[in-house]
Fold each of these.
Amino acid sequence: MILQAQQLEAAIWSISEGRGSDDELALLRADERLSLSLLDRLIIDVEDDLESVRNLRGDEREQVVADFTDTLNGLRSTAALLRPPPPPRPQAVRTEFIDDDIPMASEPWEPGEVQLQASWSAGQVVVWAAGRGTAPEGNEELATRLETIGGPSVGWQLHPSVPLPGGARADAVAIPLKDALGWLVAIGGGDDHTGVGPSVLWLGRAALEGVRLVANGSVVPTVRAGGRADAGLVETSVRWAPALLDGGVINTLAAAMPGTVVAVGGGNGRTTAIAVVTAAVEAIMAESVERTELPVPPRNAKTSIDLEDTIIARLDGSPFPANANLATTIARRMEQWSRTVTDLTRPKLVVQLASPAPGGVWLVTVSAPTGKGTMVPIDVAMRTEGGRRTLMAEWQRLGRLFPAVDRVGIARRGQVAMSQDEAWEFMTVVGPTLATVGFDVRLPALSRRKARPSLRLFAEAPANSVVGAHQLSNVSWTVLFDDVELTADDIRRLARQARPLVQSSGKWVEVDRFDVQQAAAALAEREKITQLTGAEILRHSVGLGGSGLAGGVVVHGNSWANDIVRSASAVSMAPVTQPDGFTGTLRTYQAEAVAWIGFLDAAGLGGCLALDMGLGKTPTVLAHLARSAGDGKTLVIAPAAVVGNWAAEAARFTPGLRVVVHHGAARASDDELDAEIAGADMVITTYATAVRDIEELIDNKWRTIVLDEAQAIKNPTSDTSQQLRRIEATTRLALTGTPIENGLGDLWAILDFTNPGLVGSRPSFIAQMSGDGEAALRALNGLLLFRRTKVEPEVAAELPDKIDELDHCTMTPEQIGLYQAVLDELVATVADTGGLDAKKGAILAAITALKQICNHPAAYRDDGQPLEGRSGKLARLEEIVESVFAAGERVLVFTHFATWGRKLADHLSEVTGVPIACYDGSLTRAVRDRLVDEFQRQTGPGAMVLSLKAGGTGLNLTAANHVVLYDRWWNPAVEDQARDRAWRIGQSRTVISHRLVCPGTIDERVEEIVNGKRHIANLVLPAKSSLADLNNEQLRLALGLRPDELLAEDDK
Amino acid sequence: MSRNQRSAQGQNQRRRPQQKRQAPVDIWRDPAPLADIEPITIPSEAGAVLRSLGDPPLMHGSTATKYFTTVIERAAVIAAALALSAEVLADPEAD
C-alpha cells in the first residue's frame, strides 16, 4: 500500500509539473479515490507552504511565492483531471481544467473559426482542429489541414480524442516535440498564422525560448538518479537542463497561454511553459549529441570511474543502471555545481565599466543586489548581505571569465582599474560574454563602426573682401574622426596610445592607428597654408583638393565658397514644376534642375546639365529661360540636327520667348546680326555657324550660353572649343547625356568650359577623382553638375513607358540639289503626261525618290561614295547611336527602304566598331530568327537595322529601349507597330522613340498626314482628291522645299 | 524548491480541509497577447556559461568539460539554424 502511494505520488508530481505520461495518468485513474486523497493532502501542504513563504522578506520572496503558486496550480489541475466534469452550462464555455488565475468567461460568445489547435501532454504535441462552438474536424480533415499548413509529414500517431466543452470530442494526433520542433519554431517566429490557432503559436513561441537558450549556450548537463534501487543499482541518466532561464519571460508566456494548450495534459501556464522550453532544449541537445562522437561506455557503472565514463558516453540521455550510492552522490554534486545557473532566484551581479574622467582611468565595478532592491558594492554585500554562498558562487563565476577582477594588487574587491587597451577588450569581448552568461553588464555606448577620418578646412573671409572666386580667406586645418574634431596636438596624443579611442556622438569608437598617422601627416602638410582663394576652397569642397584621408575634406566657415555650397544644398528644397512663362509641367527632377540652374545663375557659376537621353534637357533649359526672361539674352549652340528641335520646343513650351534661329544660308549677315538679335530672348545657332560668326557673337552681351550635345567641346584644343571659350556669359551651361563618355577627360573639358580654371588642371582633376568617373559625378552632383539617369528609381517612377521625340534634321547642299532636280523633273514629266494613272504613277515614284533623298543621296542613287557627311539624318542617327552606346544600351533603326537599311547597317558597323545586322525580307527565316535571338541575348551597346516591312510586326526585341524611325510612313499605326517591337511585355525600361524628319521637305508633309492633317503646304485637299489632281504649281507647293522651314546644312 | 523539500515541509504542517473551490477554465478564452519576439543573438562563445562554472565535479573534469563543450557548441549551431529558419536570428552587423 505504501509502495503504491509512493508510485501514485510520483505520478502526481510528474503530471502536475507537466511532464507526466499517459501511463502515469492511467495509473492515477486506476485508483482514483486514493489518488484524489493524496492530491488533496499535497494541495493542503502546498497551500500552507505558500502562506508561509508569503511572509518571507528579501529578493527571493517573489520567486519563491511564484514557485509555490505554480506547484499549487499544477496539483489542482491534476486533481481536476481525475474529478468528473461538472454538468454543462448553457454557454458551454468551460472545460474541466482548473486555473485560479484565469477567470471564467461569462459573456455570450459567437461561434469561432475552426483552427488547428495544439495541446501539450507529457512531452508530446497533441494536435486537433476545432473552434469555439463549432463542430471539430475528423482525422481526415485534420490530416489535410496539417498538410496544407505545412506540418511535419512523419512522426504522427493517433491520440485519444480531445474532450471539448459541450460534450463533443475532437479527433487528435500526437507527435513528440523533437519531431515537430522545426515546424513549431517556424510558426512561432513567422508572421503567417493562417488557419493556425493561438495554442500552436504559443507552443512555437515557448519552443523558441528553448532555441534561444541553446543558441546562447545556456544549458548544463545534470545527472538524474531515480526510481527504485534494485540490487543496489538505480536507473541513471544524463539530462540537459536549461540554464539562466528568465523568470520574466516564463511569466509572460504563462499569462499568454491559451486554455487549449492544457486541454489534454492539464497543468498551469508556468509549469507548462517551463516544460515546453525544457523539452525544446532537450530535443536540440539530443540532436547535437547524435552528431558528436562519444567514447564507448564501460560495460557497467559500478565504480566511480566507470560511472563517470558512462555519464560522458551517454550524454544522449539514455538510461543506465548505476551503483545507487555513487549515482546519487554524483547527481547531487552535479546539481550543486550547476545550481548557480539553474536557480531562478540567484542574485544577479552588476558589472559596470565607467568611462574615464579626463586624465583618469577606466574603472570596472561589481555590485550585488540587496534585499531592499538596491545595489551595493560586492565587497560590502559579501560582508553584510545574506546568501553569501550564492554571492561567492557568482563572484567565482565572474572570475573565471574575467580574471582581472581578482588580480593581484587590487585594493578593494570589485573595483578594477583598466588601461584603455583593456577597456576596449572589455567593451568588445569580455563584457558581451559576461552578459551572455547572466551578469548584468553595463558598458559605455560603443560603436563597432570604424571612425572615418576627414580633413576639416575652416575658412573665414575678412570683412569687406571681394566676393567671388578670387576672394582670399583665412583658413585653419583640423581632423575629424566622425564628429570628433582633433587638433594636431590631439592627434599627437592619440598616436601615443596603444589602442586609440575617441568618443563620438556619445559612443566610444576605435580609431585605426594608420588613420591617426595619416591624419598627422595631412595636418603637417598643410601647417603653413593659412590663406586660400574662393576657387581653391570651392575645389576642396567638391573633393578636388585632395586630403589623403578616407573622408576627404569637409569645408566649414564663412566664405564665398561656403555660401556657394550652402546654397547648392538648399537648391532642390521647393522645385517649381510649372514655372511662369512655361507651357507644360516639369517632372520633379526637371524642376530640381531648373532650381539648380537658377542657383548657378545667382552664383555666377556655370554647370553641366547631364540628364540621360530622353529625360528632357531642352524643356528644362527652356523652363529656366522662361523664368529668367528679361534678364538678358541666351545663346544656344547646338548640332545642326537639333537646331530645329530647339526652335520647335521653344515654340511649344515657351511661346512667350522671342527666338531667333541664326543658321543657314539665309541667316543674318555680320552687319545684320545685331539688329536681328536685338530684341531676342534666345538665339539658336550651330557649332559651325557660331565658330564662323564668332566675332559678331563675342560683340554681343549674353546672360547665358548653352552648349547642347556638349561632347562637341570634349577636345579642349579643338578650334571649336577654343573659339567658343571666347564668348563671355554670366552662366555657361553645357548639356550632355554622356558627361564621361570617354573618361574623366571629357568631364574636365566640359567643366573647364563652364567654369574656366575652377576645377584645376586636367591631370590634377583626374588624379583627385582617382580616375573614377562615377565617383566624380557623385562628388560634383548638385554643385557644378546636375546628373540624373533613367535608372534612378525616383526618375524612372515619373517617366512614361515610352517617350516619342521628333528630331528635326538638316539637309546637306547635296540633298537639297538632288531634291530640287527630282522635283523639277517631276513637274516636267507631269506636264507632258496625259493620263491620270500615268501622272499618278510619276508622282508616286517622285515621292519615293524625294523621301530617299531626305534619307541620304546614296539611298536615292548609289554612287559608291562614302556615306559620311552627306545627310543630316544620318548625322543625327550617328549622334543618337553614339549616345545610346555610351549608355550601354541598344537601339532599333527602322527604314522602309531595305536596300538603304543594309547600307546603313554596314555604315554604322564601320563607324561604331560594333557589328550591326540588317533584318530584311531577303534573309531566310532561320537567319532572321538567329538575328533576333542574338540581339535579345546580347547585352551592352548594340543596334539592329530593320526594314519596316519585314521587321515592323511580330518580333520581340525588348533588349532595345531606343527606336529610331529613320523615315516616315504614311500610316502612323505602322510606325507604332515598329516602336512596339521594343515597347512590349518584357520591357522594363522606358522606350525612347526618335522620329527623324527633315523640315520643309516631303518628310514633313508625311508628318502632317500622319498627324491627320489635310492641310499640306498651305493646300487644303478636297476630301476625295489625290495629289494627281494637283496642277504644277500646287505640286511644287505640295512636294517642294520650303526654304523658310528647311534646315540647310550649309556650314560644313 | 524540490519535490522532496516540499513534501518534507508539508508533512510538518497541520492538515486542513481544502477551503477554495476552483473555477473551471474556458479553453476558448482570449489569452493575453504574446510579447514581441526578441531576435536571437549568437554569442561569440557558446561554451561561456559552461566555462563560467569551471570543470564539473568529476574525477576527469577537464575531459568531461571538453565533451560537454563540444555538445553545447554543436547544439548552439543547430539552434542558430532553427532561429534562422524561423526568421528570428539577430543581424550580427547591427551596431
Amino acid sequence: MTLTFEDFSVGHLGRFGPRHVTREDIIAFASEFDPQPMHLDEEAAKHSMLKGLSGSGWHLGSLMMRMLYDGLLCRTASLGSGGVDELRWLSPLRPGDDLTLDIDVKQVRASRSRPDMGILTLGLTVRNAAGTVLLEATSSIMVSRRQSADEARRDR
Amino acid sequence: MPFFEDLSVGARRELGSFTFTAENIKAFARQFDPQPFHLDEEAGRRSLFGGLAASGWHIGSVCMKLLVAASKREAEAALAAGKTPAAWGPSPGFRELRWIKPVLAGDTITFSSVIETLRTSESRPEWGIVQARNSGINQRGEQVFSMLATGFLQRRVAP
C-alpha cells in the first residue's frame, strides 16, 4: 500500500535504521566527493579540529537520504524535494557508527499551484548508537494526493 | 587559499563544471537515493523532472567536490608564490538549499561561490566564520542549485 498525502499528519513518524558505516565507506565517499585529509587519512585526521578520521558531511547527508528512502519514501508516492531549509552537522560521522534516523512530520500543507499534490515538512535527526545527534535537518518533500496517484498508476 | 583576513564580502570564486551522465546519476542513486526517477529513464520522463534526474544529494556532493578542488588549486598557488596557504575547517552546516530546476542526464553544471558574511569565532579565535552562497547553473544559463554554506577558515594571526 503506497502512502499518499492524505496519510500524513503532524507528529513523530518513526525511527529507522540502523545503518552501519565502515572506514572503507567513509574513504570511498571522500575520495570521490570530499578528498580532504580529515576524511581520508587517520594520521592527518588526528591533527584536525575533529580529532580523528571522520566522514564527509555530504556522506552523512547522503546516508540520511538513503535511510529516508528505506524508511519512508520507498512506500510513499514521493514526487521529489525542493530543498533543505536548514541542515546542521553537530558531531562527526566515525568509522563503525550505526546510524538511526528519526523522522518527524512538522507541517502538512496542500500545494497552492498543484492541487494533485501536497507538501510535507520533515524534521530529520541522525544519531549514532550512543544516541549522540550527528545531524539535524528540515526538508520538504512533495507527495501525490490519492486520486492523482491512482490515476498515474492506471495510466502506466 | 587566502586567509580569513584576505576575504571580502561579495568576492566570487569560480569552482568549475561537472557533467552529470546517466551512468554517474544512476551510480549515486543506487547507493544513496534509489527513487525511480533517479534510476530509470522512463520513470524519470513520467516524473515532475521530465527525464532521468540527478539526486539532489548528488548535486550537493559534486559542489563539495569542486569546492575542495578549487581550495587545493588556491593552496598550490599560494605555495608557489612563497606564501603559507590557509586551511578550511569543518562546516557547521548550511541553510536555504534549493534544488531549483532538475539536473538531467547530459547536463553540465557550472558552480560558483560568493561570500555573503564574514565574522570571527568567539569560541575558536584562530578561526573565522565564512558564509557563502554556492550556486550552480546549467548549460542554458538557468540556475538549478543554490545554498548558503557556512565554513571555518584559518585566521592569519590569532588574536
Amino acid sequence: MIPTEFDYVAPTTVEEALTALADGGEDAKLMAGGQSLLPVLRLRMNAPTLVIDLGKIESLRGVRDDGDVLVIGAMTTHHQVMRDVAVHEHALLLTKATETVADPQIRHRGTFGGSLAHADPAGDVGVAVLALEAELVIAGPGGSVRTVSADDFFDDFFTTAIGEGEMLTEVRIPKHTGWGAHYEKFVRVSHQWSIVGVAATVKAEGGIISEARIGLTNMGSTPLRARSVEAALVGQPATEEAVRGAAASAADGTNPPSDLNGDADYRKVLAPVLTRRAVLAAAGV
Amino acid sequence: MARISVSVDGSSYSDEVEPRMLLVQYLRERLGKVGTVIGCDTSNCGACTVHLDGVSVKSCNILAVQADGHEVTTIEGLEHDGVLHPVQAAFRECHALQCGYCTPGMIMQAIDLLNDNPEPSEEAIRHGLEGNICRCTGYHNIVRAVQTAAGHAPAADPALEGTAS
Amino acid sequence: MTVTDDRPAKEVGSSRRRKEDQRLITGRTRWTDNIQLPGMLHLAVVRSPFAHAMITSIDTSAAKAARNVVSVLTGADIADEQGSLPNAWAITTDQKTPAHPSIAVDHVAFAGEIVAVVAARTMAEARDAAELIEVEYDELPAVLDLKEAAKDEVLTHPDLGTNHSAFWQFDSATAGTGGAIDAAITEARANGIVIEREYRQQRLIPAFMEPRSTVVDPTGEQITMWSATQVPHILRFLLAAVLGVSEAKIRVIAPDVGGGFGGKLQTTPEEFMTFIVARRLGKPCKYTETRSESLMAAHHGRDQWQNITLCATKDGTVTGLKVDLLADLGAYVALVGGGVPVLGAFMFNAIYKFPAYQFNCTTLLTNKTWTDAYRGAGRPEATYAIERIMDELAVEVGVDPLVIREQNWIKHEEFPFTSVCGLEYDSGNYEAATEKAKARFGYDELRAEQQRRRDSKDPVQLGIGISTFTEMCGLAPSRVLGSLNYGAGGWEHASVRMLPTGKVEITTGSSAHGQGHETAWSQIIADRLGVPFEDVEVLHGDTAIAPKGMDTYGSRSLTVGGEALVLAADKVIAKAKPIAAHLLEASEADLEFEGGRFSVRGTDKGIAIQEISLATFAAHNLPDGVEPNLDCDATYDPVSFSFPHGTHLCAVEVDTETGQVTMRKYVAVDDVGVIVNPLIVAGQVHGGLVQGIAQALFEEAVHDESGTLVTASFVDYTIPTAADVISFDIDHTTSPSTTNTLGTKGVGEAGTIASTPAVVNAVVDAVRQFGVDDILMPCTPERVYRAIHQAGSEGGGKPTEASAMPHFDESEGDTL
C-alpha cells in the first residue's frame, strides 16, 4: 500500500535537519534508513505531514577511531557496521549483533542510529550498545549537544531519551579490544525479530573470566543489562558448569512480553539458557 | 511533487513524483518495469528486491525520491545482448522457480550474495536469502542454483541428470 | 522442422528445462497487476474491523468528494445485482449455506469482510478516499472457537439459527464396503487395543506469493476479466450464473499467476465486485489486494478438530477406525467449502487394511475468514491423523513404527485393492518405497544414534518420524462427483491444432500457475505426434482461447488434462491417416505411424505429419469428403482417482533446553507413477515438503479474542525461509497407474500431505521418553519445551498467545 501524503525534505547538514524538524511541528518525522518507518507508513499506522530524510547528511556516516572510543555515525548502515574492521577489533559484540539484524537487503539500508532511535525492544543493536556501555550523542535546537549514557537512553517501548526537536547524531563506544563476544538470537524463523536475544562480551585471561557484560533483548520494554550475571561471572572459569551457575539469574527482575512466539514465563526459561550459551561462545568455549 | 532523475537498467529517467511514492511503484507504474513485483507490505518477502548503486535493497521499502541521483538495476537489466546473467541461467538450469513471482527478487538477492561472497557455503546461501520468501520451491533448487552460479554445483541431483535443452 | 542432436529418444521422462522460465527469469512476465488500460480506474475497499456486527450507517460523502474519486459503492447500492457468492458443493441436500454478498449489505460476519468500495483514478487516491468512509457498526458477539460454535450458544449468522452447516457421514457397513465400526470397537475394548486421540489441524493461510489482483474491461462486446486465479473457466461460468450475464459475453483470462496452492481456487468477492463496478461505470477497473488484505480475506485452510478411535487386535492388526471431525468453514461456505473435509473422508484409512470404518464430519460456521482448499485439501488432515495414530499403536504394541505399518498395509501383490471406502487403488508398492527410503535415510544408524543420545541424556535429542502415505488425486470421475452432490464434473479438455508451418499449438483446460504445463504438455505431444519439443506451443488460461476446462487443483492436471491431450493427439493422427494414405497413394491399412511419420509398411515411402499439415492447409489434394483440417479436441473424464504413495522419513533434533526443533535429515521416496519430467516432479516434491513442514513447525493463523487476525502480515504469519529448512533427499519408485494411458499419478500435493505427520512424529519420537505423546501444531519451541518439562503432553497443547510483537505499531516513536 502507498503511505498517506507527506512533504519531503532531504537536508544535508544536522543543523538543516533540526531546523526542518522544528519547523515541521509535531507531525514531522525523521527518517534514517526508513526500514522500520516505511512499513509503518505503508500500513498507514502513522501519517506524518513531513518526512525529513537524513540520508544526505554525509557527516553522520561512518566509523572513526577517537582514542579509547569508536565513534559511529548515526546514519552508518548496519552493513557498514557489520563489515567495519575497527568495530570488529574493538567492539566485536556490535559486529555479532548487527550480523543478525533482519536480512541483507535491510542491512544495506537500515542504519545503526535509526535502530537505536526506533528502540524496538526486540531489535538487536540496542542491547550491544547497552552492554558495551556506549554514550549516545544527541543534537538539539540552537546547536545544543548532549551526551546520554546507554543506561539512560532507552526509556520504554519505542521511547528513548531523544527529546522533541532533537536527533541522535553519533554513538561513542568504549573500546573493548580483546574481549570475546557472542550474540545468541533465538527465533522461530530466521527473518523474525528476536524472541529473546542475549549479547555477551567477556574478557578472559588464562581461562578465567575477569570481566563480563551481558545484555538481554526483548526481556522487557527496553534492552536490559543482566548485571547479576555479569557480577557472578567475574573470577569464574569459562566452563559449562561455572557459567551455568552464573547465568541462572539472567531472567531475574525482568518483565518480558507474552506474544505469538511465547509467553513471558517461557522467555524467562530461555534467558538463562541463551545467556550460558552466549557467554561460553564469547569466551571461546 | 518532487523532481527526480534516476538511472534504471542503464537508461536515464526524469520524473515528477509524489514524495510518498515507493521506488517499486515508480518502477512499475511510471517506467513499466513490471518485472519487479510487490509481495507484501512489511518488507519481509523480498519479491521487490533490486540493486541500488550495486547493492540489494527492497524497493518497496525506499521512496522513489530517495533514488534521486542513483542507479537502479532490476531483473530486466541483467540480460546483455541476449545473454542471460549466470544467476538467471542457473535458476533455469536448476529449476529454481515455479510460479516465478519471487524469482526476480530472489535472483537479484542471489547476485548480491555472490558479489559479497563468491564462494558461499550452503549455510551462507540459505542465510543470504533469508530476506526472500518463496512459496513454491522449498528453496532446495534455489540453493542449488546459487551453488551452480558460483561454480560449485554439488554432487548431481538425480532429477538434474535428464537431458538438458 | 528443427532437429537438435541431443534429442532424447523419448521426451517423456526427460528433465527438460522449462519453457516458462525464460520470461520468468528476465521479468518479461504478465501478472494481472501489470495490466494498465486506457482510463482504467483503481479500486480500494473498506473492510470490517469487527468479526461480527450489523452495519448501521455508512457515510460516503467525504470519499465521494475526494480528489479524482469516480464512484463509491456500498453493499446496499448493489444489493439487487450482486447475488450470492457460490458454493459449488453442498455436501448434504439440507446443508445450511448463508447468503454471501460480495459487499456486505447490513451484516458482517468476519473481520476483513468488504463493506464499501471506492473507484478512483489512481490507486493512491482510491486508498486515501477509502479512509474517508465512515461506517458505524453495532457489534455483535462473535463465535470464534470451533468447539464453542458447536454449542450454538453464539451464532455466526443469527438468521440461520445454528452454526451447524452440515453433517456428513460415511459408514462402511451402510455402504457395504466393510464391517460395522461399533462392533469393532466393542470387540477391541474387550479383547484388543483401542486408541483414542484428539488431534488439531490448525488454521493455515495458503499465502501464495502474488497477491490477488483482478482487472475487468467492460468495453467491447465481451467483458474481459483478468484475474490471478487458478480457475478461469469455473470463474467465467459462475460470474455468468450468479450475475445473470450470458457466459458468451464473458472472457476470463488467468495470465501469469503467482502461485495458488488452492488459495486461488475460489471465486472471490473481489472478483465479483470488480466486475460489477466496471460494468456500472463502463470503465476498466483494477483491484489489487495488499498482503495484509490477502492474509485476512483470501480463504484460509485446514482448521479441524479430529477425534480418532483406532481399534486393533493385541498384536497390532487394525480392526476398525472411527473419525469424528469438527471442521471450521469460517463465516461463509466457500466454493468447495465443506467439501474439503469430505475429500479427506476416504483417506483416513490410508494404506491400511481396515475392515471397518466410519467417518463423521460436522461443518460449522464461525466468525472468521472462510476456509477452503489449501494444498492437499482434506487429505493432509486425514493423513496426519492416521499417521500420527499408527505411531501410537506401535508404541502400544511395543514395536518399531515401520513394523506396525508393514503389518497392516496393503501388500504389493494385493493390488488392485478395494479399500474400506470402496475406492480401488490401482497400483502401488509400499514395501519397495519403504525399503528404498530406509536405505537412503540410514534408518538403523539413526536409530542407534538416537539410543546413544538417550542413554547419555544429551540435551539435544534425536527423533525419527515416519509417514507412509497415500492420497487420492486427479479430481475426478464426474459420476463420483455427482454422487457426492458436487456441482460440476471432473473432466478435462484439450485441443491440438496443426499449423501449416508444421508447428503444433495445443490448448488445455488446465490452468497452470507454476506447475510447468507448458513444458510437460510439450513433452507429451512431442512423443505422441513425433514433433520437436520446441515446435509445440501450449496455450491456456484464457476462456476465449481454451474455452473448455475445469482448471488446475487437486493434482489433476496431468492425470486428467494430460490424458485429454493424449486423446486429442490420437484423434489428429487418426484424422491425418486417410490424407497420408491419399498422398502416399497407399492403403490406410498399410500405414503405420511412428516418430512423426506415416510409412507404408515394407517400403521406404513415408510422409511426415508436418507435411500432411501443410498439405491439409493448402487443401489442393485431399481425398474426397475429407475436411481440410487436422485439428482435434478431446474431453476426458477419468474412470478413477489416482493413488500416489510414498514413504517419508524425517529426523529432527530437539533442543530440550529451549524446545527448538531443527531439521536434520529428510528422505522422501514417492511413487507417482510414470514421471513426465523428473525436474518438475522434484520441484513439486520439494515445495510440497516445505509447506507440510511449515504446518508442523511454523505456521498458524491466529485470531485474537475479538476475532481480529493477529497474523495479518509476514511478520507474524511465519513462513519459513531458506535459512529455516534443509536440502532434501528425494527418490522414486514407479508403479504406473493402470487407469490412464501415460501411467501417471498426481504429485502436486504429495509432499505436503506426507511431510506434516513425518515431522510431528519425529518431534514426538524425540521427546516421548519424557512422557509426551502429542504436541499441538505448529510445534513451536515453547510448546515442545512445555511438553518436555510440564508432565506429559499438557504443556504441548498450550494455545498460541493471540497477540503480536508491536514492531509496526502506531506506538512506534522516534525514528532517529
Amino acid sequence: MKVIEIKNLTKFYGKNRGIEDVSLTVEEGEIFGFIGPNGAGKSTTIRLMLSLIYPTSGSAAIFGKDCIKFGHEIRNDIGYLPSEVFYYDKMRVKDLLKYSASFYKGDHKKRIKELADIMELDLNRKIDELSYGNKKKVGIVQGLLHQPKLIMLDEPTSGLDPLMQHKFFDLILEENKRGATVFFSSHILGEVQKLCNRVAIIREGHIVKIEDIKTLRQDTYKKVYVRTDKNAIEQTKFPGISNLEVIDGEVRFLYKGDITELLQLVMENNVYDINIEEPSLEEIFMHYYK
Amino acid sequence: MNIYSREVKKKLKSALIWSFSIFLLILLFMVMYPGFATDETIFEMVMENYPEVMLKAMGMTGVNLATVIGYFTFCMLFTQICLAVQGSIYGFSILSEEERDMTADFLLTKPIKRSKAFIAKLFAAVTGLVITNAAVWGSTFLTITVFSDGHEYEPVMFVKLLSTLILFQLFFLGIGMLISVLVKKVRSALSYSMGLAFGMYIISATASIIGEDRISYITPFKYFEPNAFVLEGGYDPVMTIICGTVIVVSITTAFFLYNRRNIPTAS
C-alpha cells in the first residue's frame, strides 16, 4: 500500500520558490529519507502534506486520501516532529502531553510514561524551563504518544546529544517494526544512511534523485586518506581510484567500488594511519550534477 | 471542546482583570455623582469653562449631567474605550498568537479541522467578552442603586443602553480577527489593538467636533454614542444594523481566510 503519494506538487510563496514539481511515493513500512541542504524545500514538502500550507499546484495523498480534503482524518494517524519545537511556555510538560493526547481517541497515559522514561524526560517541569534538547524530547513524546501509522520527522536530531540520538533512532526503528512508516527529513547524510531504506534527494526545490540507500552508497565515492611510507598506492593502477594526490606524505583519493579490495591493497603497504570518509552531502550533489 | 476549554482558561484571568478595572472605573465616576447632582449650578459653571471642542470630543454636550443617566453617559464613554481595547486585543491575538509563539504547528497538525479550531477560539474569546460584559452590567446597576442619591432614573433606559454593548465588543473582536488573518504576521497584538481602539475613538471625536455625520458610519463609538442615546431616547437602528453587518462579514471572512491560510514556519 502506498502511504504517501505526491504528484507534481508545487508551492510558491508569492514569487519565491518553495518546491517545484515534486513527485514521490512511500510504501507502507518504509523508512524513507528526505535529504537536502537547508532551504531545499524539505519542510515545505512536509508542511504541504500536513496541510499547514496549501499547494500552488499538484496533489499529495496520504493513506490514499487527499491531504487537503481529508486532512483532519489523516492526521489521526500521523505523528509529526517539527524541526523547531515551540510549545505553550507556561504549561507543564505533563499538561502539554495531556492536551496533545486529548486530540486522539483512547488512553495514552501509559505510552506517555513509557516514552518519557526512554527519553529521560521529567514530566513535572515547566516548558519554559527546558533546554532546547529537552524541548525536542517533549516533541518526540508528543509525536509518538498516539502510536501513529506514519511518523514525519523534520530534522529530528538537532539539539539531541549522541546518546539521546541513539535512543531516539532505536525508538523509531521499534515503531517501524510495529508497522509504522517513517518519513525522515534531514540534511545529515549519515543519520539517513543509518536508518533509511530509500532516500529522495531534494535540491533547490526539485527532486534530484530517488534511490535505494544501498545503490546510493555503492554509487557514491568514499574519500580515503592513507599515511604510508611507500607511495605504492600512488603507483598502482587500481580500478576505482580517482583524483589521487599526495600532500605531506598523505595519499588522498576518491574511491568507488568494493571496500574489501581497497583494504587489501592498503594492507600490502606499511600503513600508519587510514581514514575513510563518507562524502559530504554537497559532494554527493556534485556527483549527481556531473 | 479541549481547545475551547484551554483557551477559556487562558482568557479567564485577563477577562477578570478587565472586569475588575472597569468596575473600579464606574465606581470612581459614580461615587462623585451625588456631589455633582447637588451642586448642579456650580457643576455647570465648571463645565462652561472647558473648551467646547473638548466637551464635544468627550460626548458631553447637550446632555444634562445632573441626571443619573446623563452623568452615566460620561463614564460610559470610558467604559467603551476599555471594552474596545479588550475586544481588539482578543481579536488580534486569538488566531495570531499560535503563529507568533510558533505553536500553530502543534495545534494544526492535530486531527482537527481548521474550522473547528477557529470556532473554538472564537467562542473562547466571546466567552471572555461576555464575562466582562456581565461585570459592566453588575457594576452599573450596583453603583447607580447606591449612588443615585434619591435622583430619579429609569432602569429600562439603562437596560437599553447596556444591551448593545456586546455588539460594540464584537465589532472590535471581528475587525481584529479579520486584520490578523489579512496580514502576514501580527508582531504585537497590543499595538494593533491600541491603534484600532483609539483610532476609532479619535475618528468619532473628530466627527463630533467638525459635525460631520458621514464619518459616523465607520466607527462604533458613533453607532453607540451614549449622549446621542440620551438625547434621542435610543440608538439609531440603522447604525446598529451596520454594526451587526460588519461583525458578521468580518468574522465570516476571517473564517474563510483562516481556513486557507499558509501557516508560516518557525524559522
